[in-house]
Specification:
The protein folds into two domains: about 140 residues, Aspartate Aminotransferase, domain 1 (Alpha-Beta Complex); about 250 residues, Aspartate Aminotransferase, domain 2 (3-Layer(aba) Sandwich), CATH 3.40.640. The termini are far apart. Helix content is about 40%, strand content about 15%. The protein is built from twelve helices and 16 strands. The strands form three sheets. Strands 2, 3, 4, 5, 8, 9, 10 and 11 form an eight-stranded mixed β-sheet that branches. The chain has a six-stranded mixed β-sheet with strand order 6-7-12-13-16-15, with helices on one face. A two-stranded parallel sheet has the order 1-14. The chain has about 425 residues and is of the alpha/beta class.
């Protein structure tokens, strides 16, 4: 079998898929074991949210089945949904967008992939790259290019804050030096660090995108208006250079594969054609369900009264748990959190290695995600040194009993690693 160059790239097991397969293999081989999966990217199973979507899906099934599931539809999206999106954003943010500014797709991963394929790679005038202005960022971005080496991450500026906190900042100078950028892509709030790009950083990125005449794609999978898993209710930006990507996954529908883009029509029109050429369109029963959630702004009440407070509470719980449980003589820090579903832990010790911690935890029935997968070049960080191999991502979505048991095991594994490095047995405390 001969694979094309693009085929070779797409057949590669990305860090993300590797983790998923590893977890599936381990849990499948020992199904009776009480695994604690703190590596998951699934949203929390919140009964009120699940019940609300189920009610809307039932209405869509009863009211729209023949018109949605039993026939093809337009690639831009179900007209009722496209109108609902336009109405919702114009009402909520005072925008004046129309259907020409919207394309609905089967999940935001696919929408990011489509945009990367459209705006980066070998071109008529030059070959361009997908540039991630600040890594660590979502590991799924690393599979977005069909060209080898087509995704480039820019190292952040790292600052410690107080005793147990640290933060990244976008290095705008380094971003501006990315001469081959065909598109910039960043998640905000971010997966994994829960970091929100500041207004000044977004202005800086827009200036750079403007100077390079390329789009800036903002992945708002955790942001506002939904799922609203962010400390501050930051409004999305309407700008002719910005491709806003929205996902319904973290609002509770990851299995339905539904997301949409809002952008200037010069970006949206080719994306609609890409969808027509590849998938035809996103599943329409799910689209009819979402239309019902946006009409009358019903989704706002669920976000404000259930989803946002749920994750704020969960984050507080997790941070307190980690402070209580992790060994105080180990130099560990959490990234300052401004949203998202994860805690990003940095163990600033020479003896620490993310893969080794994950191996020890797997033996103890716990999964977390090694930090290096969120960097494009974890071995070659000029400024960050070993930092990309000293972090792990811990999910906040499992239930509190699993979180507690998982964090206890993380603490014990850290103490073992430290004792081993110090040449002791670990039985002296
Ligand atoms: C930042 C970010 N973007 C996109 C995705 C994928 O979202 P979707 O399910 O809409 O494809 C995820 C999933 O975890 C994510 O964390």
């Amino acid at each position: 079998m001969e694979l094309s160059r693009a085929g070779l790239e797409m057949a590669r097991l990305s860090g993300l898929r590797g983790i998923m397969e590893d977890i599936a293999l381990a849990t499948g081989a020992a199904p009776g074991r009480a695994w604690r999966n703190l590596g998951v990217g699934n949203p929390a199973a919140i009964p009120e949210v699940c019940g609300w979507w189920q009610r809307l899906a039932t209405e869509a099934l009863t009211g729209s089945f023949a018109d949605t599931s039993c026939r093809y539809g337009p690639s831009r999206g179900l007209p009722r949904l496209v109108d609902a999106i336009v109405g919702y954003f114009n009402r909520r943010y005072g925008w004046t967008i129309g259907p020409r500014n919207v394309v609905v797709g089967p999940g935001s991963q696919m929408l990011c992939f489509m945009a990367a394929a459209m705006f980066t790679g070998p071109g008529a005038a030059r070959d361009t790259e997908l540039v991630l202005p600040m890594t660590p960022d979502y590991t799924g971005y690393q599979g977005l290019s069909m060209t080898a080496g087509g995704v480039r991450g820019v190292e952040p500026i790292l600052r410690t804050e107080g005793e147990r906190t640290f933060g990244y900042r976008i290095d705008l100078t380094a971003v501006s030096e990315q001469a081959n950028a065909g598109m910039f892509l960043i998640s905000t709030p971010s997966n994994p660090a829960g970091r929100r790009a500041t207004p000044e950083e977004l202005d800086g990125l827009l200036d750079i995108a403007e100077a390079r005449d390329v789009p800036l794609m903002l992945d708002l999978a955790y942001g506002h208006p939904f799922p609203g898993i962010a400390e501050a209710p930051t409004a999305p930006i309407w700008h002719e250079r910005v491709i806003n990507s929205f996902s319904l996954s973290k609002t509770g529908l990851p299995g339905e594969r539904l997301g949409f883009v809002i952008a200037d029509e010069r970006y949206v029109t080719p994306l609609v054609s890409f969808l027509a050429n590849s998938a035809l369109h996103a599943p329409q029963l799910a689209q009819a369900t979402l239309a019902r959630a946006l009409e009358g702004d019903a989704i706002d009440a669920v976000v404000a009264s259930v989803i946002t407070p749920f994750y704020a509470e969960r984050r507080k719980y997790m941070e307190e748990l980690l402070v209580q449980a992790l060994p105080c003589e180990v130099s560990w820090r959490l990234h300052r959190s401004e949203g998202g579903m994860f805690v990003w832990l940095w163990v600033d010790e020479d003896w620490f290695d993310d893969l080794e911690l994950c191996r020890l935890l797997k033996e103890r029935g716990v999964f977390v995600v090694p930090g290096r997968h969120f960097f494009t070049e974890p071995e070659r960080g000029a400024r960050l040194g070993r930092h990309p191999r000293q972090c792990v991502r811990i999910s906040m979505t499992p239930d509190p009993a699993d979180l507690t048991a998982g964090v206890e095991r993380i603490a014990a594994a850290l103490a073992d690693m430290r004792d081993r490095a110090a040449g002791t047995t670990g039985n002296d405390n």
